[in-house]
Amino acid sequence: MKNTDRLMNIIQRCLNGSIIDEEQFDSEHVTQGIRRVVKKYAIQLDRSHVVNLDDALADRVWSAALDFLVECGIFCLDTGRVIQFTHDEIEHILAEAPSEVQLGSGVDAVREQYRCVEDTHPPLNMGGPVGTPVSEQLFLPVMLSYVQEPNVDVVCPATLSTVAGSEIRTRSPLEIMAAWEECDWMMQVLQRAERPGMAINCVQISVSDVGFLSAISRNGYRPTDMHTLGMISELKVNFEQLNKVAHTIYQGGIIDPFANPIYGGLGGGVEGIAVLLTAEMVALNLVYMAVCHGSSPTHPFNFNDTGREIMQATSLSLQALARNCHLMTNMTVSPVGGPGTKTLLYECAAYTTMCTVSGISRILGPRSACGTVQDHVSGLEARFNGQVAQAAAQLNRGQADEIVQRALTFYEDLQDKKPVGKPFQEVYDLKTIQPSREWVKCYDEVLAEVSGWGLPVH
């Protein structure tokens, strides 16, 4: 079935599915549904590990997620109807999902591909602030600090704080102008770094469909870039997001959406989030026709995903997916630490190691300081992420679990304190676009530490 046919099928299900109140969907379909399958499939983690070591448990999570998704469906906010799929439909659609894709063009092209658990082929490294707000005067040097790193394979832009000094208003001409400014400046960055064909994750500034549809049109972002959009938590879509899907399909673009379940929310705790995350990754393919499938499970208070419980759930979910389908999955590192802090690097070491051995195809970020503090990002942490991913691909899960637990001891008690570090201009020279000696010294010290733990970084 062509993507246009699949899109029409989704639209018809939005229009003709069973009607339900949103609050009823949340409580009966999502919350009660998760509780039902967690009990039915005996989903119970061994809390002594962060990286999942139990294959049978991962397979039960997969079965629970599909069972849950069939019964729950996906709620369309615009029509108040539930989009539902049978188990056979899900299996058929997943069987036809791509297991590899070329990102970018020319000599800068890279290939993302499905990875299994403990795959020795390392995941791609997508460096960038992943939507962190950055001031206009710093946008070019900040993004150049990422693109110039040789081990950054593809790039994700920051979000502009203003356009021509004006606050950006959603669904206004200012959003369109900001989306085009992001696009134009990113093309300048690629040219300056002599990597013109590198793939870009776009459009970061576009909250609504207005800027997105504009900036991925003629002379804007390219079909070889990754076109991103989000599933509304939990398991909800609207026509605005489907407008982005439709336009990307007709532009021939790569659909690279995300779903970020909230820890302690409708899905509950560790076991529930593991099942919900698995189901939402599958739903990205069913409803958005995703080529790549991303997430960053979110802590409700600290806004990070590097905490122990979220990493336990994430590892289990990623392994459930990697063992039972060939979807390409990617995760965003969202640490509480910011540039200039060892906390940030310890968090990257833990999260990237966990994700790599659990089967992701691409690691994103880091979204330093949880992406909430303007200008608190730099390219050096993306270099670190890439080195960790390369090294972690040489580990088994037991070895990775020991490293993750070691890293946690250095930052676990600091998560609520949010050591956001320093802004870009205090950790990089704005003329040379090189990190400060202090930031490099911090980087080298942590690199030596994790090497001593058994992570074979070079």
Short description:
This protein is of the alpha/beta class. Helices cover 46% and strands 13% of the residues.
Secondary-structure map with pairings?
Blueprint: H1 3-16, E1 18-19, H2 22-40, H3 55-72, E2 74-76, E3 81-83, H4 87-95, E4 100-103, E5 110-113, E6 124-127, E7 133-134, H5 136-147, E8 154-155, E9 159-160, E10 162-163, E11 166-167, H6 173-192, E12 201-202, H7 209-215, E13 226-227, E14 230-231, E15 236-237, H8 239-251, E16 254-255, E17 258-259, H9 270-288, E18 292-295, H10 308-324, E19 328-332, H11 342-358, E20 362-365, H12 379-392, H13 397-408, H14 424-427, E21 428-429, E22 434-435, H15 437-452
Helix pairs in contact: 2-3, 2-9, 3-9, 3-10, 5-6, 5-12, 6-7, 9-10, 10-11, 11-12, 11-13, 11-15
How would you portray this structure in words?
The protein has 458 residues and is α/β, with parallel strands linked by helices. The chain has a single domain, classed as Alpha-Beta Barrel (TIM Barrel). It contains 15 helices and 22 strands. The chain has helices at residues 3-16, 22-40, 55-72, 87-95, 136-147, 173-192, 209-215, 239-251, 270-288, 308-324, 342-358, 379-392, 397-408, 424-427, 437-452; strands spanning 18-19, 74-76, 81-83, 100-103, 110-113, 124-127, 133-134, 154-155, 159-160, 162-163, 166-167, 201-202, 226-227, 230-231, 236-237, 254-255, 258-259, 292-295, 328-332, 362-365, 428-429, 434-435. The strands form eight sheets. It has a five-stranded parallel sheet. Strands 1-3-2-15 form a four-stranded mixed sheet.
